[in-house]
Amino acid sequence: MTARKLTTLENRAIAHGLNVSDGHPRMPLTRGQRAIVAELGDLFDQAAKRPFHEIEEEAHRSFLHGLGQHAAPVGTGRLVTCYSSSVAMDITARALAERTGSVALVHPTFDNIPDLLRARRLHLVPVPEHRFEEGLGELPPEVGAVFVTTPNNPTGWVLGAEPLARLAAWCAGTGRVLAMDTCFRGQDTRAQYDTYRILEDSGAEWVVIEDTGKLWPMQELKAGFLAWGEGTRLELAEAFDDVLLSVSPVVLLLITRLAHDAVDGGYAELARLLAENRRTLAETIDSTGLVLKEPDSRISVAQLELPESIGSATDFYDRLVEHNVHVLPCEAFHWARNTDGGRDVRVALARAPEEVRAAAAMLAEVSVRMRADGRR
Ligand SMILES: Cc1ncc(COP(=O)(O)O)c(C=O)c1O
After folding, report:
1. Which of 47, 93, 275, 333 places its Cα 20 to 30 Å from the Cα of 54?
2. In angstroms, what is the span from residue 333 Cα to ligand 1's centroid?
3. Which of 105, 214, 215 is the pocket-test mutation for ligand 1 (most atoms within 8 Å of CB)?
4. How far apart are CA 117 and CA 139, in angstroms?
5. What InterPro entries would the database entry show (predicted)?
6. CA angle, corner 112, sides to 296 and 354, nearest 5?
């Protein structure tokens, strides 16, 4: 049986119940964010008056510099704004398919990444996270690109600066494109070294997808950024032009304001909320048989491993839905071998603390009941 698509399950959670399913931020606005939203009328006035490219460049600079990305290609024409990171991903997949028939992709990762690559007829070779640190020496020669998600969803794993430099040098030396999804980097300072400096110095052809949509509870007012290198010979600008003219300048102005607010304490506040929610989850499931898998992860999701006595992650998910609580079973993250995720569920943490507390209590209760049922 193939795993159910993650977005399909996330949509069920949006429809009803306690939603700790999708990774989009759904906690209450902070005081700073509420003040920014209250200025929306002014942002509309500015959007109508100021040149679009000035507004866009300001958003790129504020967002990327605020995350340590000082060498990002702001103002070069090699950085474009999409409605979402998935749109940037689709453009990347299309451009990669014109170059190669085969891509090495991190395993596990969020399933819409392999799905969008496969939709462009790309053959995928799974690569476990640790191999990006140890070297990809024996990849088949037909693999023309390497794709890595860092921080990775759902594990929170981060590719460090030194392994990235080695990977980029290897890609440059073997003529492979290096593509990166860094959508979760705003949640983990360990991913905020200047990626673009390393990529550009390596001489590799590279593409990076960034995202404002995982950070702030903006009701889907967000953007995905797609950047590429001076020496990258993929037809990304052409593919982008086929898809859209521009995103809303109001959204870009909002991103500029939110990025400044984030640097002035908003990122620290987000990190505190995620740490508090991760701690609540860990404490509530303690001695229920559920285990927090990556306690050191900083991103806005947590994986729990189920005890042997609870059937599969999908069984556990189905029982939770009966109680109106929505998590994600992790099979589909393991896009090449669904069974690898068969004992794990993912819980979203970018929520109000009371929502995570209520969901954690139900996870604990259902786990204890299912274990008791399993022993009968
Ligand atoms: C790592 C990663 N990249 C990209 C996306 C796509 O984000 P969006 O649905 O906002 O386009 C997701 C979705 O959760 C994700 O986990």
Report:
1. 93
2. 12
3. 214
4. 18
5. Aminotransferase_I/II_large (IPR004839), PyrdxlP-dep_Trfase (IPR015424), PyrdxlP-dep_Trfase_major (IPR015421), PyrdxlP-dep_Trfase_small (IPR015422)
6. 45
Listed in order, strand segments (DSSP E) in 306-354 are 325-326, 328-329, 344-348
Domains in the chain: boundaries: 6-30+265-375, 40-260
Single-letter code of the amino acid located at 107: H
Q: Model confidence over 6-65: pLDDT tens digits?
A: 888 888 888 788 999 999 999 999 999 999 999 999 999 999 999 999 999 999 999 999
DSSP, residue by residue, 342-375: TTEEEEE-SS-HHHHHHHHHHHHHHHHHHHHHHH
Second-level CATH architecture of 40-260 = 3-Layer(aba) Sandwich (3.40)
Residues (pLDDT < 70) of the chain are 1, 375-376
Helix axes 161-174, 195-202, angle to 10 degrees: 30
Query: What's the pLDDT tens digit per position in 340-354?
Result: 999 999 999 999 999
Token pair recorded at residue 129: 């996270």
Q: 183 C-alpha to center of ligand 1: Å? A: 7
Report the C-alpha gap between 179 and 147 in whole angstroms: 5
Q: Pick from 113, 244, 303 the residue to mutate for probing ligand 1's pocket: most ligand atoms within 8 Å of its CB.
A: 113
Domain boundaries 6-30+265-375, corresponding CATH code: 3.90.1150.10
Q: From the CA of 24, how far away is ligand 1's center (Å)?
A: 9
DSSP 14-73: HHSSEE--SSS--SPPPHHHHHHHTTHHHHHHHHHHS-HHHHHHHHHHHHHHHTT-TTS-
